[in-house]
Amino acid sequence: MSYFSMNRSNRPFNKKMQEKLVVLFLLVLLAFVGLSIKLISITRDNGERYKKQVLSQQQYESTIIPFKRGDILDSKGNKLATSEKVYNLIIDSKMMLRKEESLNATMSALNECFPGFPEADVRSYVSQNPGSQYYVALKQLSYDEISDFVDIQNDKAANPDVAGVWFEEEYKRIYPNNTLACDVIGFTGKDNVGSYGLEQFYNDTLNGTNGREYGYLSEGEMLERTVVSPVDGYNIVTTIDGNIQQIVEKYLYEFNEQYKNGARPGGNGANNVGCIIMDVNNGDVLAMGSYPNFDLNNPRDTSALLGSRFVNESGVIEYEANCITEENKDELLSDDAITYQNLNYLWKNFCISNTYEPGSVAKPFTVAAGLESGKMTGNEYYTCNGQLRVADHDIKCHNYKIGGDGTLSVQEAIEQSCNVALMLMGRQIGKTTYLEYQEKFGFGYKTNIDLSGESRTATLVFNSSNMGETELATSTFGQGYNVTMIQMIAAFSSLVNGGFYYEPHVVKRITAQDGSTVRNISPRVLKQTVSAATSAKIIQYCNGVVLNGTGKTARPAGYAIGGKTGTAETVPRDKRNYVLSFMGYAPADNPQIAIYVVVDRPNVVFQDDAKFATRIVRSILTEVLPYMNIYMTEELSDKEREELENLDITIKSSNLSDEETEEEGESADNEEDESIVDANGGDITSSTSPTAEEMQSDDVLTAPLTGTVLNTQTGEPVVEDKEDGPQ
Amino acid sequence: MARNSISRSKGYVDYTLIFIILLLLGFGLIMVYSTSSYSASMSSTLHNNPAFYLNKQAFATVFGLVAMAVVAMIPYQFWRRFAGMGYAVSAFLIILVLTPLGYEANGARRWLKIGISVQPAEIAKLAMILFLASLVCRLGNDIRTRNGFLLVLFSPAPICLMVWRITDNLSSAIIIFMIGYIMLFVASPEYKRFLIITVAAIAFAALVVLVVVHMADAGTFGYRGQRIRTWIDPEADASGGGFQTLQALYAIGSGGIFGKGIGQSTQKLGFLPEAQNDMIFSVICEELGLFGGICIIVLFLLLLWRLMIIASNARDEFGGLLVVGVMGHIAIQVILNVAVVTNVIPNTGISLPFISYGGSSVMFLLIELGLVFSVARSIDFAED
Prior knowledge:
The structure holds two protein chains of two kinds. Chain A is of the alpha+beta class. Chain A has three domains: 63-238, Penicillin-binding protein 2a (Domain 2) (Alpha-Beta Complex), CATH 3.90.1310.10; 301-348, no CATH class; 355-515 and 522-719, DD-peptidase/beta-lactamase superfamily (Beta-lactamase, 3-Layer(aba) Sandwich), CATH 3.40.710.10. In chain A, α14 (363-373) packs across α17, α15 crosses α20 (532-547) and α16 packs across α18. Chain A is elongated and about 145 Å long. Chain A starts with a helix and ends in an 8-residue tail after the last strand. Helices cover 65% and strands 4% of the residues of chain B. Chain B has 14 helices and three strands. In chain B, a hairpin with a 2-residue loop joins β1 and β2. At the A-B interface, α2 of A face α8, α11, α12 and α13 of B.
């Protein structure tokens, strides 16, 4: 062949070479046989052991994939609580030490990416535990925080030595509004167990099921790998309106700012101040808040306790002790158990957990019982001489000093909050009927609101065996038995909505993570407490309270509302400590919402003034009613106009704005009246005569209460015949 | 029989060899996918694409097959004039690794990025086969002299040293040296010298091992000393240096006689590092058992047998020696790879020809086989 001829030294592949090639092949064959024998011997000698070894390595590969706890949303879909994915940085010493260079390379990468990385701790852990594969170096990092390091880890070509670090996923509970609605929401620890409020009540609904990635042995000892996906929890949509809630909490905070550090040095504006706003026509709780509050993202922060009353190791407030202040905090809270009791008290929802004597806000219930049972017609007149002899005691009216209210109609009795008239009504109604209606209104029973921590009050109300003549008399004006705020407002809503008692509730819908509805929770009418006619009468009387009586200061600009004030003496009856309240509704002619504000012992020297509560109500309603698009029906004075403008509130009127301009002249007249009163330095409205001013300051109990009072702690009757016997 | 059926002008085509090569390549792709899909799907840098390694390997395989066909069509004598140049070029390319053209992966600077990434060591193996075949032909009967013998024995040494010292790749250096040694063995009619050299080498290795084992501090010999200790007793350092070797042994041992079934390896799920690479044989044993492993060894034996037949029947000494070089290359890598996996020798990075993942390796092996086919084509049965 031609190309072979180019080659001069073209020797053939000779016999000797062929022979050596065969020898080479035989040597290779020998090597292959040797290796095959080695393979066989490995399998024969160590096969079973290695098989077990492989399986034991796999069994520990089971890992949990966490579920996402559901969100808590307000009625408009804003997040009140949510869960965010976070990452724990895990050190695998074994992997990190596999290559010599890894330790230093990984440490420098970690230092670069995580400011404040505890390098010394990790290094000493790795050197002391070279076999460990799980050490949590950093906790709950956000994705942004870890992304730099993840990039380094993924760039294997540039960083071949970074090893032995991985991230474990988990979820962290986040409360975007910190303190907002803290009592209602409650909080959740790392273990997805809710404490207090919705987090506890709906714990199972909010929680899902963890997923798991694991290996298992199938038939024939084959290892199968399976991933069971986690099932995320459901979201709950509440009836709480974040905006209304915010308005409520703003004024509760403002109240605290105004009165804190008063008669009780370093103390909050009041021991507690709470507010509930409810839709009277379906039992939806639109807002529920109290002060002092706490940060849901940091519930164990003891600085939230500053200003609170001190709670002892049994969980009872020590009224003798000073309030918790910066100075005495370390001393008072030196014990963990005591600190926990104090935090516990703070975490409790004042609106459903605390019980107290309601005071005169109970009067509409007494009247309703009389009218509905037919024991009263509503056309009666009662004469008040300042006190009434019941059993062996004289029970005084608040106007005792000026000789009583004189003769009053039922409406006037409510407007002026006359205790004598109410006691006379109580005699008319009788114990049996009175107790029958107490039960109807739900006093002594839980409302079963869907929040955790509602108090039982069964032992804190009277029954036929322990209610005597005196107890009946004091009960008519709300002293002697205990209630919770939610009981009062739920029952009161039925008085003003035509008699329908709705079960109060906070959650209206349960949705899946994709937004689809799992369950709608519709309003539940449990019973009819009074007839429509009685309801109309009660509305008429309560409108009078705000129009002519003790509740004038609760009326917001531009609206007519109704309601009832309360000034309840607390135990011990030392005439110094009071619970002030106002329970009302708006608008006056067609109640849509109910509002109830309770101020528990304001931090002032003279507490017996319901205006501590009515002013809060007025401030809240001034903003809430326009927000809810309820039309203004009342004329606005220039002063009120200015007030609304300062608050940036659009004036909403059902009348055309033209009409309003026409009526401007009239408003100016009103203003004149007002300015006269202003000169007197009070915010009390025009027609008040100076002498009546004292009376206006509400239904203060001036008589020593002699009847039995049920102890809030034990439910045992407490005899209060003797003065100064602190319980 | 064959001599009657195959016409001289068309040249001889070894279909058995083609079949064996395609079988090994196809099987290799399957095993690369089986061993790498899990780790590739777990890696976000690879976009969680389970076929990432398979795609790259398939591309290199197709490219290599085309190159093999082209080389097979070119008469092998054509390359003889480039023998010396090939030696120089491979030395130059190794030095290029030190320039910015070189790059590092898996902690060693062994690659060159010139359009595609290649390992100069792979080029050096091919160049060495060509160079030595040409050298032996030129020496003629001088190979019988001591000087001729030593010249052939040590001419690969400079390249080997460069591969070892510059690219820090002792295993490739050893392979290159042993290719030369095998070619010399076939070319030289001697036996005694080889026996002496082999025994001396084994004795030296045994001495090194003894010294390392009995020394208190293994640090003197660096990580290689540590590897020798690990080799003696891998379970003593199960989580450190012995990890890979032990996991490979676990894989082989747990496979049993017929294995867990293809794709069913558990060791590849993150336990056995580089499962698709140097340790692929242990996964073959785990999934297909002793039976599968020995089948692969038999397949390689068949391949080597075909190469021996072609070398024996080569038209000339140059062609024959080329085939012997290729045969030596494949034989050494198979033996060393299986020996590492079974812990017969200390752990060092040697891939299993045609099966392990690695584009450079499979491409240059196929080019070498192209030369073999070219030699086969020239076999003149009429003159045999």
